[in-house]
Amino acid sequence: MTDNPVAIEKAGRPRLRMRRIASRVPGYLEEVYSWAYLSPRNVALLDRPWVVWAILWANYGKLLRATLAEMRPGERVLQPACVYGDFSPRLAAHVGPQGRLDVSDVAPLQVANCRRKLKPFPHARACIRDAADLNGDYDAVCCFFLLHELPDAYKYKVVDALLDSVAPGGRVVFVDYHRPHGAHPLKPAMSLIFRTLEPFAKVLWSREIRDFASNPARFAWSKQTYFAGMYQKTVARRRA
User: Fold this and answer.
1) What does the pLDDT look like over 93-102, one tens digit per residue?
2) How many other β-carbons are positioned within 10 Å of the β-carbon of residue 25?
């Protein structure tokens, strides 16, 4: 693959661009998440709606609705990183045939799996891209439970890349973990999960997502939390 820009043409729409990158999987992904995302057998086992519901303690439906509420039919939407379950098909259906959905992921296996799920939606596509190397002119970016899986240094790169991918007046929607209230009965369990399976996640308990942006003042930021603070929806709206 080369570093030349790839034009994404859509009739009646501005041209969007995402730079091609080498498809090499980052080292942290191979070391920490190989079992979850790079094993064909495990992908087949884990890519089920009930698994997503279980991982999110039955909050998937609420978080999905909160995400879709930020998107409008007919918009150009970027989804960095594939998501297990029916998230991408639901997002594609919500955007509708007058819009466009671009899904990117650095893992070829994940892209192939997502393409299979998006076959009924000709206005949606999945491509091999690193979230730190995206750009474009999208109406909205939908970052659903990606940041917690990134090393801190990578979080800065990805947040800046996503913020740079929306047009003036556009927005980036981050849905991810958040510090639960002190008396949350699942807080000890989540601490254990983070220590054993999600080593890059707990920083979201102590830092705001906007802290990872180089120039947060270009955006108007808002945040809403769910499930007694365990999850957040943070929206960055680019100032006109």
Assistant:
1) 999 999 999 9
2) 20
Cα 90 to Cα 46: distance, rounded to the nearest angstrom: 18
Taken in order of first residue, the domains within the chain and their CATH numbers are 5-238 (3.40.50.150)
Return the residue matching tokens 């979230």. 131
Structure-block tokens of residue 133:
């190397």
| E strands, 33-179, in order | 76-80, 100-105, 124-128, 138-144, 166-177
**How many Å apart are CA 96 and CA 76, to the nearest integer?**
10
For the question of whether the overall pTM of this predicted structure is more than 0.85, the answer is: yes
Query: In this structure, which amino acid lies at residue 95?
Result: V
Report whether pLDDT(29) > 80: yes
Quick: pLDDT tens for 159-210: 999 999 999 999 999 999 999 999 999 999 999 999 999 999 999 999 999 9
C-alpha span between 123 and 136 (Å, rounded): 17
